[in-house]
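Q: what does this look like with oxa(dethia)-CoA bound?
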Amino acid sequence: MIGTGSYQPETCLTNQMLEGMVETSDEWIVQRTGIKERRIAIGKSTAEIALPAAQRALEDSGKSPEEIDLIIACTATPDSYTPSLSCVLQGKLGAKNAFAFDVIAACSGFVYAADIADSYIKCGKAKTVLVVCAEVLSRIIDYTDRSTCCIFGDGAAAAVFEAREGEEGILSTYMRSDGSKGEALLAKALPVEDPFSSDREYPSSDRFLKMDGKEVYRFTAKAVPQAIDEVIKQAGVDISEVDWIVPHQANTRIIDMVIRRYGLEREKVFVNLPYYGNTSSASVPLCLDDMRRQGLLKKGQLAIFVGFGGGLTYGSILIRI
Ligand code: UT7
């Protein structure tokens, strides 16, 4: 991983502002989730927030757009089905030697895409891969539904992976899905309908994200430890040797559960959730970019990145920095 970048939209939606919009309180939100504020991309498309994140990651990596072989974009909130977000970015970046496709894996998007990037690199089909995760979730959030509007935020982040000799890089990965519980986190696309009907209205209630928080929480309580256990087992590493655990930023209770289960020092688990909320696929790379910019990631360290969410999907990657 040779470069990272991110973009946080300017508009900040605080818990206090939400108190004026729905029946909630700063105390409830902080206690149940740990979130204090989130960013909202008012009037911006997903590509518009993805592009600066991608440009910053490229700049950080020292690579030119022409050197990118593959662009993988992750989003649950694309601007269009086609062209895909990755193709839009390829055009705007001028990455004319790359092929580009999107991955839909909700909050696991980054770890799924990093695993794909790693596979392309290891089998020799790509040398330099740009992974971009961007979400304008505010487009599908109902700001009268207190069970979701307090949780989700917008953001974009990207990372560049390159084939290199040496000790560093992705050591092990573990990806899983449980589609039988997919309805627990639902963001619908176009409805099933009679294409010849004169009445083809899109029901407005279907445009918003719905989450059965308790069901997702139960799934997460099993999925996250499983994902951590599997990557360390594969790499033959003990949890005590791991310097960082970077979970998808969904909820401080999940983060606390990880800390308790493995008896970790709190400082080993990176958290920026209070400032961005849950940004789905962008959450893990937003952490990664924050950590790199704060100088927290040191050469030789071991870091586990864990994604979980819609699909339901989950997965983890273990990286030697
Ligand atoms: O990114 C994908 C991964 N997603 C997750 O990991 C989410 C996992 N789930 C969670 O983090 C939690 O389930 C939530 C934070 C979403 C909700 O916490 P909870 O403890 O499961 O609350 P709940 O949904 O069971 O709701 C408890 C009560 C309900 O009231 P009643 O029915 O007990 O009277 C809700 O209506 O809290 C109420 N409530 C709220 N109250 C104030 C729900 N949202 C709010 C709110 N403010 N914003």
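The mean pLDDT is 96. The pocket of oxa(dethia)-CoA is lined by residues 24, 28-29, 32-33, 107, 146-147, 150-151, 185, 213-214, 216-217, 220, 250-251, 278, 309 (CB under 6 Å).
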